[in-house]
Amino acid sequence: MTSTDADSSSMAALKLTDDQPKAEGAAPSTKPAKKAKEPKDQKAAAKSKADKPPQQAKKKMGEPELIGITVGKNEDLSEWYQQTILKGDLLEFTDVPGCYIYQPGSYRIWEFIQEFFNERIRKMGVKNCYFPLFISEANLQREKDHIEGFAAEVAWVTEGGKTKLEKRLAVRPTSETAMYGFYSKKIRSHRDLPLKLNQWNNVVRWEFKHPMPFIRSREFLWQEGHTAHMTEEEAGIEVRQILDHYASIYEDLLAVPVVKGKKTVNEQFPGAHYTTTVEGYIPAVGRGIQAATSHCLGQHFAKMFDIQVENPNQEVKEGEKREKLYVWQNSWGFTTRSIGIMILIHGDDKGLIIPPRVADIQVAIVPVGVNAKTTDADREKLYDDIKNIAATLEEKRVRVECDFREGYSPGYKFNDWEMKGVPLRIEFGPKDSAKSEITFSRRDQEGKGTMSLSDIGTGIPKLLETIQSDMFKKASDEYAEHRKQITEWKDFVPNLNQKNVVVVPHCATGECEDEIKKDSSGQVEGQEVDARAPSMGAKSLCIPDEQPGEIKEGTHCINPKCERGAKMWVMFGRSY
Amino acid sequence: MTSTDADSSSMAALKLTDDQPKAEGAAPSTKPAKKAKEPKDQKAAAKSKADKPPQQAKKKMGEPELIGITVGKNEDLSEWYQQTILKGDLLEFTDVPGCYIYQPGSYRIWEFIQEFFNERIRKMGVKNCYFPLFISEANLQREKDHIEGFAAEVAWVTEGGKTKLEKRLAVRPTSETAMYGFYSKKIRSHRDLPLKLNQWNNVVRWEFKHPMPFIRSREFLWQEGHTAHMTEEEAGIEVRQILDHYASIYEDLLAVPVVKGKKTVNEQFPGAHYTTTVEGYIPAVGRGIQAATSHCLGQHFAKMFDIQVENPNQEVKEGEKREKLYVWQNSWGFTTRSIGIMILIHGDDKGLIIPPRVADIQVAIVPVGVNAKTTDADREKLYDDIKNIAATLEEKRVRVECDFREGYSPGYKFNDWEMKGVPLRIEFGPKDSAKSEITFSRRDQEGKGTMSLSDIGTGIPKLLETIQSDMFKKASDEYAEHRKQITEWKDFVPNLNQKNVVVVPHCATGECEDEIKKDSSGQVEGQEVDARAPSMGAKSLCIPDEQPGEIKEGTHCINPKCERGAKMWVMFGRSY
């Protein structure tokens, strides 16, 4: 078997879908689903497949074949997603299930996120550092709730070289327990507070749920911030500052709208005092998705790891000892899942659409109107003009690629850049040159426009910003339309089935959430259902910061079986 | 046992030395040496310890105690190194032997290296990406020489959650085998060449040699570049470009001199066609140290992973198939070892000296002349003046820290910043203010200087650059003095014992190198020996690019037992 064979067979074996709720409770297995291509609902798939023939580029003699995305986004999101990320050169599968290759196209987005976030946290006094990949079992188990939350998904190293290790080592699923022994040593006095560290690294969670590239993978990249403070109040302020930065990465960089809020106790981080979150929404399937979380850990870990200082504000007499105070800790993390959310929200039937601010290539310039009759001199002049256009834009810090590839038609190139999601394409040919203008095509809209050559230095950067804000507005409107405020249980499941998330009065207890999850799975008799909507039960996504109104005394919890009375508005939804 | 106890006991258990050649051949064990504090040569240590009392800061009433580095660098390098990195807040030990915490002080240096190198490789068309941490055993074993080189040091994951994995997974020791299946898939035609990818990640080599922070650790951070080219020539050009960048990181950023060259076959990378290297030198012990390597892998991996394209330059008749050409590949890596080399070279008895270009804090400003009689208004004015000085410098992109810590004497602060290696300290008090000047102290030199306040905007950045170049010059002169060109075997071991590396005529065969290694260990009878010089055998460090002269036909190899005749000048030394 050649290596190429091996790769393609492993590819087939790894073709996994994002949407297999029934498998979630299945017995653990390291074998991925062998074949999961069939859409969940054959009828719906057949219908929409008929709507839209596979896209093919117009082929130039002898040029390589470009096969576009062959399935509509609304037809089979899972298949669409897989084709989009593979053909868009963002990701590749490997022979280790749930572990993926981040190609330059996606890794660059991650670098933009790193730059953006680093700048903000440095201003907050956070310092970057690096803690080991391996955590001793003894250390990992020091916080009870925490280890219970992760025990099922820890990957263990048991052999080094040809030797069995005396004590197995955990591959970090997160670094609380790796870091806090150090905090205990480092923090000797209130003068050492606050201690604010962050690291960008890889973590492994050996989940046996079906993996989905970017969204749920066994290894992923993230940053994890860990801070220690004198008071709960100070810790709480930081939790919120970070949540604002997370929202800003999504909204300002990735053009993805999020809802800020707090997790219910049921859904918070193992070992946390409370968890705040930004929650996204995937319109194509009407599912919510946790986008990033910022936790106040309270004093749990401080007690387990003995991180304490003397109370500096206590008045003491000579010889008297000051009381010891445990520090207040936070941890907060933002992962490469964000890239998956961005893809799922913005992409269309042609493939990726990358928001300009995180696009490695913001503008692709394609020469047009060149044919067999074009003289070498004319072609050279055209290419020089294009290089000048690129230089003008690069001076304005626009990231440009001139597509001078030989042997490909402009049509092929257009489709190629569209599939890769480049936000703006410029076409330039002899006709444009004669009119001293460029023709452009926005990736987020149909149609073409023109711009005077003399305007591009200011016009193109402005246009890129317009694309960025239009992309955000479109996604934002869609989220708002599908976030329904309801108060009656009869509207609960029908709304989920209409691919909505719902904001409802709730008692905020875990038992009631579990009950709602159970009662909201499946369909409702008599209701016409969108087959693309998922059918698993809904869980609480967050308690939105922006409560849509007051909850009056005596308001019923949305769950008709619950008699506790509503305490707040809680957002529920089927989710990833 | 409290966590603090646990930490300090693990600290003691982990106290490892850098220099235990005798232990290299010992049976593998995951247990670190329990106690390795005793210097190798008691007499020498006793002598130099008497020369130099432990440094202590002058203590202010009630201020915390600062304990400086208590051993001279030339007295016991191993102990000095450990104290320097711990007290300088660069690194901390963990309860996993050979895995270390990179504190912000060292991680920031790594970030500067990343920025510097990213800028250069982007210009070469290299793109960053990320490949999985885990490599399947089948993949890892595909290149025979390669796996033989790494088999003894691979860490294996065998359990996920509570389940034993069907197939164990290697934690990457390097990513050739993780990446090249992808290359095979990605490279379909000569148009896909060159393919140039790089990743910044963590790798694990579960060595059973004694670990040494930064220098030899079981997990380390690095970048690994992997590229594929049409021709050997093109690959070769890149190998050298990268080597130049590596030399530039050392010389221009870290102020560390290196010798560029090629590895002998004996010392090249497992699976490489040839290996180029930059070699450093640690004056305190007279040992060479491999600083970074850039390999041409030739076509070995291309054959194993089936990475080939059709020959685009071949003239073919219709229906005839073009011949297949295997691509030429390179890989090149630069690691966090560089930080260790930098520390070992520049540090002095007071602790770290960080070159200005990679110092997170370039200038520490310490208020002086404030005492119990100082009025609040005067103190406030002084602090405002200092803030203005800082603002002036920050405008010039100087990284400044104002040390307004309460309860610490200026003496304590001076020692603290010195220990942390901040390259320039500014002192500012009422007397300086009256004279409109600042007092400064360069970390790399004794004594103090003054500068007019009106000059600091240009004077301080210039001074920092002077410090940078003086540090490089000092280290460079020292390396040059200790690189001895010799032609007679009788001078070989004595030179090693005088803490030199030697450049010698050599036959360039592996057997001869092995023989030299065996014959150059230990001491020479009758020679007065520097007890700090290591005593292990010398190995070939590199074939320097700058050959000190022609090797005439008939020149003898330095090894008197060798009859092959010398082919080139080779640099040998005892090394890390």
Can you describe this structure?
2 copies of one chain form a homodimer. Chain A is an alpha+beta fold. Chain A has 4 domains: 3-102, no CATH class; 124-346, BirA Bifunctional Protein, domain 2 (2-Layer Sandwich), CATH 3.30.930.10; 356-470, Rossmann fold (3-Layer(aba) Sandwich), CATH 3.40.50.800; 483-573, C-terminal domain of ProRS (Translation Initiation Factor IF3). Chain A is built from 16 helices and 23 strands. Chain A has helices spanning 3-13, 42-51, 77-87, 104-123, 137-140, 144-150, 176-186, 232-253, 300-305, 337-346, 376-395, 410-419, 430-434, 456-481, 492-497, 510-519; strands at residues 91-93, 100-102, 127-128, 134-136, 155-160, 163-171, 195-204, 219-229, 259-262, 274-282, 287-298, 308-310, 324-326, 328-335, 363-367, 400-402, 424-428, 437-442, 449-452, 483-485, 501-506, 539-544, 568-573. The first copy, chain A, has an 11-stranded mixed beta sheet with strand order 3-7-8-14-11-10-9-22-23-21-20, sandwiched between helices. A 5-stranded mixed beta sheet of chain A has the order 16-15-17-18-19, with helices on both faces. The first copy, chain A, has a 3-stranded antiparallel beta sheet with strand order 4-6-5. In chain A, helix 4 (104-123) packs antiparallel against helix 8 (232-253) and helix 11 crosses helix 14. The longest helix of chain A has 26 residues, at 456-481. Chain A is globular. Chain A starts with a helix and ends with a strand. In chain A, 49% of the residues are buried. Chains A and B meet through helix 1, strand 2, helix 4, strand 3 and strand 4 of A and helix 1, strand 2, helix 4, strand 3 and strand 4 of B. Strand 5 (155-160) of chain A pairs antiparallel with strand 5 of chain B, so a sheet runs across the interface.
